[in-house]
Amino acid sequence: MPPRSVSGRALAFVVGIMTFLACLTIGAVTVVAAAAADWSSDVQREMTIQIRPIDGLDMSASLDRAVEIAEATPGVSSAHALTVDETRGLVAPWLGTALDLNDLPVPRLVAVSVSDPQAVDVAALAARLQEGVRGASLDDHSTWSARLTAMAETLVIVGLTVFVLVMVALVLSVVFATRAAIASNQAVIEVLHFVGAENGYIAREFERRFLVLGFRGGLMGGALAGLTFVAVDLVIRSVRGSAEADEIIALFGSATVGLHGYLAAFAVVVFVSAITAVTSRLAVHAHLRSLE
Amino acid sequence: MVRVIRFENVGLRYGMGPEILKDVSFNLAPRSFQFLTGPSGAGKTTLIRLLFLSLRPTRGIVTMFGRDVTTLPRREVPLFRRRIGVVFQDFRLLDHLTTYENVALPLRVLGRSEADYRPDVVELLRWVGLGERMHAHPPVLSGGEKQRAAIARALITQPELLLADEPTGNVDPPLARRLLRLFLELNRLGTSVVIATHDFSLMDQVDAPRLVLADGQLEVERGDGRSRAAPVPTASRIRGCRRVPRAAPAAAGGPGAAPAARPGRRPWCRRARCPAGRWPSSSAS
């Protein structure tokens, strides 16, 4: 009912921008969350058994024993004792290659691959190792993994906070736009009142307009965000192999948003239009009540 | 006595200003026809606003359709307004809607479907002589056309009470007479009519009580201190209106006979079956 004047274009733009920002935030959160999940599952899929060289210890027997214990543990797919050469390779960066490891008390490692992180009872395995192999200790990377998770969670929380802030800003813009619309349509509202319209009717009329407006703006922002996702994806693909891309990929996996991201962006669009409509209705109701 | 409206010692002031209306008391009977007059600034528009609940009295009691409305909750106001048609001095048409949509607005607000009300609206627009202009927007209408559109909007719900604030203020005398006939015809169909005007030539055309406002006091001319129902104008007094519709509510009983009955219940669309040339608009156009 209110005329087209309702400062429509400006508000649609604001809604569009807000939606764009919200979608980007959601996209980033999706990428970070997925990458963090990848990291921590990668990390959890590996454990290391370390056997310190103690005087009088038969190292190769201890290694065999450790491999045996590890492989007998449910959830472990394989265990591999690093050979002397491999160990030398590991320390080479620090100690150089011309070194006889036999002269040094270098601990030996067993790399344990985990097929099902949930099934492994890490504490029991550690206890059995300590019992069965002298000088053995288990490093399950849990500290590392916990740190990663904490960081990823922080990023996700930051992302969600940004999302909430964007939504609050959107609500406030809609409130102001609704007030402006009410002010410029004061005469229309008056006439509607005089012909017996209830507040609910007037609020619904506003709500309908703002729903359309919000959806239009939201679609604009959402489409733009979608295009950005695609663009980022394409750029990363095109520079794949370069050091920067490798770095990004190492950090964020493929760094693409994926189907979930696009669905989330569309959900944001729907959410934004709903919020716009509901906010305007509440604002109109509040205003009409304040007239009384 | 049954009344549509009853004012008892009503006083009104804006803020801390002087009283605009002082001890105003009067009754409006069902199917009555009266003028509200007085010099400019005497409070006519204020009184009209009180009559359609746009203002609340600062003292006194206003009773409408048998209910004290001085303490009426806001959410019930629309229900009362739907029983009252108002023609504003400045028309208050919505410029972004066509004439047709403007007149249909009260029905749309009631939630009726377009298919349901369209014939009624079209018929009423023809009745007020706007059949050709129904798709025009108010800004391109002449003053008289706007006036008639505003009147049609006030009539479309067949209100029990019609309030018109200077309805002839913007039109030439022939059109003013024609509009007056419209109101008389409406009154004959059962609606109480109050016309606020300071146009004596208009008032002289109808033998009806005059509520005269002066210095915020109201006097009823041609009465004993209370307004009384005007004699229903007979068809013979109105040129161009020769017939009384069958079983017209106006003829069905005296002013107090059937207070609950909504006047003019017959939908406007039935009028379409009336032979042309019998309605004021067609005879004067």
Short description:
Chain A has 292 residues and is of the alpha+beta class. Chain A has helices at 8-44, 59-71, 84-95, 122-132, 142-184, 186-194, 199-238, 243-252, 258-291, and strands at residues 46-51, 76-81, 108-114, 136-139.
Structural class of chain A: alpha+beta
DSSP summary: helix tally of chain B: 10
Number of discrete helical segments of chain A: 9
Cα radius of gyration of chain A in angstroms: 31 Å
Low-confidence spans of chain A: none
Give the C-alpha Rg of chain B: 18 Å
Strand order of the largest sheet of chain A: 2-3-1-4
Keywords:
heterodimer; A: 292 residues; alpha+beta; 4-stranded antiparallel beta sheet; 9 helices; 4 strands; elongated; B: 285 residues; alpha/beta; 6-stranded mixed beta sheet; 10 helices; 29% helix; globular; disordered C terminus
Describe, in plain words, how this protein is organized in 3D.
- The complex is a heterodimer of chains A (292) and B (285).
- Helices cover 72% and strands 8% of the residues of chain A.
- Chain A is of the alpha+beta class and 292 residues long.
- A 4-stranded antiparallel β-sheet of chain A has the order 2-3-1-4.
- The longest helix of chain A is centred in the middle third of the chain and has 43 residues, at 142-184.
- Chain B is 29% helix and 20% strand.
- In chain B, the strands form 2 sheets. Chain B has a 6-stranded mixed β-sheet with strand order 6-7-8-3-9-10, sandwiched between helices. A 4-stranded antiparallel β-sheet of chain B has the order 2-1-4-5, with helices on one face.
- The termini of chain B are far apart.
